[in-house]
């Protein structure tokens, strides 16, 4: 029996007020879709299968390199982060897993943490290692790199930390390790470009060797920051080459914010999928750089086009194509729970809109080079407001018709603000 953090009766009360309106909107959309030959019930059932993992570090207020403005009732340890993640899933029914970050979330009692997750109806997606900052008392520094450091002791420490993350993840029931390093150089000449990647591959081999057979290692690339001249794993090409070199269990992770402006991310997705190396996503949105804004808040069309490629690969490859979906955002000026709920819904929206694309018609227009109609076929799906489908999927799965409204009505933030006074050295949240 899954424990509800928010009283289920309160959610039901909130839903009751909106149920009739939702039904009317749903019926109207169902009629419209039926004229297009689309069964709304099939889409709603599909929406109910969608899941995106919540990043534990997203449950606290993030910050920038200038400042952090903490919110009230922030989770102070991994147990409290799990409670907030459970609220997000209870109301959206679209976030059944949590992605942890070590050592920020290192549990004193890993078995106990797994039991807590089980009781809340949550699982664990990929665990994340952290070699982009030194921990107190660390024997060697990451100041000049971790997996690629010229200092052997730093490299060995970073490899061992990743192996420790795998061990912890095994206890928790995770099946993946995401590796992102900030390694790179701030000045031309600081680092031998080829030598740094050689060291990366050598270190990564040590991590890969510790990976269980049913695990995946996700290599996350990022163009720049914290390295401002060059990053060792700067782009999908490097990530792909590393994944190919390491073996079948190594795949590429695409964080939407980790590219130069105007990069065609959906094409990267198509390329990685074609060669069996698309491991997963960190969803977020951005205007300028790695802004880590809420998914779909700036460029929902890009998100749709990415899911259009995913739907295409799903159609080609079937169940074998199963990338991991995770959010990776930093909430500086909003309530993190509200942002994560809204973002999960936006990613789910793109998933449903992509399922609405008339693929037979699209292929026909592509084959006959009817450019305008091909483009219109995508736009037709993108312009369809599938909100009633998403709300109905939530309602049928036991969630809230309006997650943010139900969350506010339940007064959760006010309650945890009393229970969770700020404490020094609370575990990390921020931008990765
Ligand atoms: Mn990321």
From TrEMBL:
Keywords: Isomerase, Manganese, Metal-binding. Residues 102-292 form the Xylose isomerase-like TIM barrel domain. This is L-rhamnose isomerase/sugar isomerase. Its EC number is 5.3.1.-, 5.3.1.14. Pfam families: AP_endonuc_2. Gene3D superfamilies: Divalent-metal-dependent TIM barrel enzymes (3.20.20.150). It comes from Roseateles asaccharophilus. GO terms for molecular function: L-rhamnose isomerase activity. Transmembrane segments: none annotated.
């Amino acid at each position: 029996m899954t424990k509800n953090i928010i009283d289920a009766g309160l959610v039901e009360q909130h839903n009751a007020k909106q149920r009739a309106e939702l039904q009317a909107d749903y019926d109207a959309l169902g009629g419209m879709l039926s004229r297009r030959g689309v069964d709304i019930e099939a889409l709603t059932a599909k929406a109910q299968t969608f899941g995106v993992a919540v990043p534990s570090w997203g449950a606290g207020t993030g910050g920038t390199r200038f400042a952090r403005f903490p919110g009230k009732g922030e989770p102070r340890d991994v147990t409290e982060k799990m409670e907030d993640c459970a609220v997000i899933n209870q109301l959206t029914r679209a976030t059944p897993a949590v992605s942890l970050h070590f050592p920020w979330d290192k549990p004193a009692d890993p078995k106990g943490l797994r039991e807590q997750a089980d009781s809340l109806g949550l699982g664990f997606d990929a665990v994340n290692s952290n070699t982009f900052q030194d921990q107190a008392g660390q024997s060697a520094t990451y100041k000049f790199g971790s997996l690629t450091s010229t200092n052997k002791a730093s490299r060995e420490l970073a490899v061992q930390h990743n192996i420790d993350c795998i061990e912890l993840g095994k206890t928790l029931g995770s099946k993946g390790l995401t590796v992102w390093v900030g390694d790179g150089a701030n000045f031309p000449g600081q680092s031998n470009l080829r030598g740094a990647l050689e060291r990366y591959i050598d270190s990564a081999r040590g991590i890969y060797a510790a990976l269980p057979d049913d695990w995946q290692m996700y290599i996350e690339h990022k163009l720049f920051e914290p390295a401002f001249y060059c990053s060792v794993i700067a782009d999908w090409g490097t990530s792909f080459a590393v994944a190919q070199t390491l073996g079948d269990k190594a795949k590429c992770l695409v964080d939407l914010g980790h590219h130069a402006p105007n990069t065609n991310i959906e094409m990267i997705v198509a390329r990685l999928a074609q060669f069996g190396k698309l491991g997963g996503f960190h969803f977020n949105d951005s205007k300028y750089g790695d802004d880590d804004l809420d998914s779909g808040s700036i460029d929902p069309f890009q998100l749709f086009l990415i899911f259009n490629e995913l739907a295409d690969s799903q159609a080609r490859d079937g169940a074998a194509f199963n990338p991991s979906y995770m959010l990776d955002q930093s909430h500086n000026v909003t309530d993190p729970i509200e942002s994560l709920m809204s973002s999960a819904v936006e990613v789910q929206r793109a998933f449903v809109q992509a399922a609405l694309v008339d693929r037979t018609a699209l292929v026909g227009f592509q084959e006959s080079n009817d450019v305008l109609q091909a483009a219109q076929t995508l736009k037709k799906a993108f312009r369809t407001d599938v909100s009633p489908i998403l709300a109905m999927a939530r309602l049928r799965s036991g969630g809230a018709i309006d997650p943010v409204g139900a969350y506010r009505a339940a007064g959760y933030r006010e309650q945890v603000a009393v229970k969770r006074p700020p404490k020094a050295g609370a575990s990390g949240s921020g931008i990765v």
